[in-house]
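Retro notes (design track)

What went well: tokenization of the new backbones is finally stable.
What didn't: we kept losing track of which sequence belonged to which structure.
Fix going forward: every design gets posted as structure first, then sequence, in one message. First example under the new rule, 573 residues:
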């Protein structure tokens, strides 16, 4: 029997209450068409005001509902997943701090209070990534926190630039100063900050590395909190973004991220990393559609994606748990026979990710792709969107092939169980949302129903790419068994290592700086500075101490010598 944990149970009830409050508030604000602007004056000094600004509209309340619901389910799931953990209360408190930072970021309009939430997410995520204290976790945590520090610095610089405007409340100035140089510079810094937090190229290396965290943390981080913070911030800045040339740069980077993550997921064997790369691909899709001017659709896809991605991580966590902590998909297979409930959840969340009709992902993904077809689009970006959609289906089919269709290795067969009611209840909540949240949110948050009129060829194009993705997925799955070619191995290696982004952006810079510091250490600290400074003084003092030592231990003999020389001196002079 599991002992009752009061902190855990209280946290679950509070998060459930917060999610219901967010949902009801969001529905009220959507139907009434109002927003609330709350301002707290913290310090008033010589006509200088330091105020805390909160903006409560339908979007922030809806996001509060999503974050709180997933946090509630994740904490409840942790009751079983983290059973036997010595520091369980510390884990729950860290998750609550993480969610609190995200909620502060959601409702803030003041860049300083946004920075508090932003930094809180970065620091608490570091504590969560290194929760299992080993070398791999420490390396991954350091990579995560240092990559996010780049975004923190950009946000600090944007705060300093906002002084030129007169206030840190950015929404008031977005509409009046869209084309001013101040707002463009601030936007560039905010875009760079969002790119680091949402892991766009070239800052993508930290996101798969963050998989060192416990699976409940991964479920929370990759669905609705840390990685979506950058997208959410840019949704708030979307008015300025559409008037600036920065959107073309961001569109290219996010489209490349979408393509790179899709290709890498097709050649990865670590279950959690495949799902992490899938998150990276979807973040690229959200950023891309945001750059095209459809901020409501970006938020819509962010909301639906959060539901099925959290469910996907929970299923992966239970599978890994039952396979004696083995994450390699090559050791899985025929899970449907031995874990039917988990397999149902796993398959439905995967289908929602692919955008199969009438699942949650279909309503947002299909709408986005049809709007891309409807737009006056560059052919390269058009290719990125549709080919990445095909790759999403491809790595999903490959994952299902390895986990459901391929035969299982017999040494794992007896450890598969499907009777953990706490985890199953957690997953069933998100299963319901993975099926119905797309249609519900579509009815609620879209200001009007989009009627997109396209030719038959274009209308069926999305479906054709899905079929193509299925075929590519099966082909890649069988290539893993039959390929002996050096060329195919090199393609696998290149794509599986995220186009060497981690080597270029992290290890490449690190090696240069470490070699430079080693040279400085050798030449200066242990070279000239040591020879002229510390070592030189040491040698001088040693010689003086040797003279003193000689005098001390030869005192009688020296006194006789001195007396003799003194008498000789008197006789001579």
């Amino acid at each position: 029997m599991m002992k009752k944990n009061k902190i855990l149970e209280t946290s679950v009830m509070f998060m459930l209450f917060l999610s219901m409050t967010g949902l009801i508030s969001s529905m009220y604000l959507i139907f009434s068409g109002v927003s609330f602007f709350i301002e707290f004056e913290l310090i008033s000094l010589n006509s200088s005001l330091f105020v805390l600004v909160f903006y409560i509209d339908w979007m922030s309340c809806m996001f509060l509902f999503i974050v709180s619901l997933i946090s509630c389910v994740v904490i409840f799931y942790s009751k079983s997943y983290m059973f036997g953990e010595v520091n369980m209360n510390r884990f729950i408190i860290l998750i609550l701090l993480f969610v609190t930072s995200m909620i502060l970021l959601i409702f803030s309009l003041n860049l300083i209070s946004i920075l508090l939430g932003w930094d809180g997410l970065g620091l608490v995520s570091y504590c969560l990534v290194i929760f299992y204290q080993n070398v791999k976790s420490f390396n991954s945590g350091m990579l995560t926190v240092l990559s996010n520090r780049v975004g923190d610095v950009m946000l600090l610089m944007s705060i300093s630039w906002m002084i030129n405007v007169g206030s840190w409340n950015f929404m008031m100035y977005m509409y009046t100063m869209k084309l001013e140089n101040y707002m463009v510079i601030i936007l560039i810094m905010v875009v760079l900050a969002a790119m680091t937090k949402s892991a766009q190229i070239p800052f993508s290396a930290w996101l798969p590395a963050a998989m060192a965290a416990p699976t409940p943390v991964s479920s929370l981080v990759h669905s609705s909190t840390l990685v979506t913070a950058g997208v959410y911030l840019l949704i708030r800045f979307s008015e300025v973004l559409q008037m600036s040339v920065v959107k073309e740069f961001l569109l290219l980077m996010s489209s490349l991220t979408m393509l790179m993550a899709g290709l890498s997921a097709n050649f990865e064997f670590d279950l959690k990393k495949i799902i992490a790369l899938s998150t990276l691909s979807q973040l690229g899709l959200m950023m891309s559609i945001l750059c095209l001017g459809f901020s409501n659709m970006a938020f819509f896809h962010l909301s639906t994606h959060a539901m099925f991605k959290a469910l996907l991580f929970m299923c992966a966590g239970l599978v890994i748990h039952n396979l004696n902590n083995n994450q390699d998909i090559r050791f899985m297979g025929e899970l449907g026979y031995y874990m039917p409930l988990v397999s149902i959840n796993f398959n439905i969340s995967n289908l929602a990710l692919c955008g199969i009709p009438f699942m949650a992902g279909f309503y947002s993904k299909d709408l986005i792709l049809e709007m891309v077809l409807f737009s006056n689009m560059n052919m390269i970006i058009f290719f990125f969107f549709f080919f990445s959609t095909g790759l999403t289906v491809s790595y999903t089919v490959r994952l299902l092939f390895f986990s459901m269709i391929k035969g299982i290795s017999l040494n794992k067969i007896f450890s598969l169980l499907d009777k953990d009611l706490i985890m199953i209840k957690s997953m069933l909540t998100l299963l319901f949302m993975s099926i119905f949240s797309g249609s519900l949110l579509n009815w609620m948050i879209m200001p009007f129903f989009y009627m997109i009129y396209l030719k038959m060829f274009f209308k069926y194009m999305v479906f054709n790419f899905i079929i193509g993705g299925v075929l590519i997925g099966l082909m890649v799955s069988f290539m893993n068994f039959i390929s002996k070619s050096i060329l195919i191995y090199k393609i696998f290696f290149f794509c599986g290592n995220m186009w060497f982004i981690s080597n270029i952006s992290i290890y490449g810079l690190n090696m240069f700086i470490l070699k430079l510091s080693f040279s400085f250490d050798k030449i200066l600290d242990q070279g000239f500075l040591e020879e002229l400074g510390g070592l030189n003084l040491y040698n001088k003092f040693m010689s003086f101490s040797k003279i003193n030592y000689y005098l001390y231990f030869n005192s009688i003999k020296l006194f006789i010598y001195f007396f003799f020389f003194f008498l000789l001196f008197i006789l001579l002079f």
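Added context from the reviewer: The chain is about 75% helix and 5% strand.
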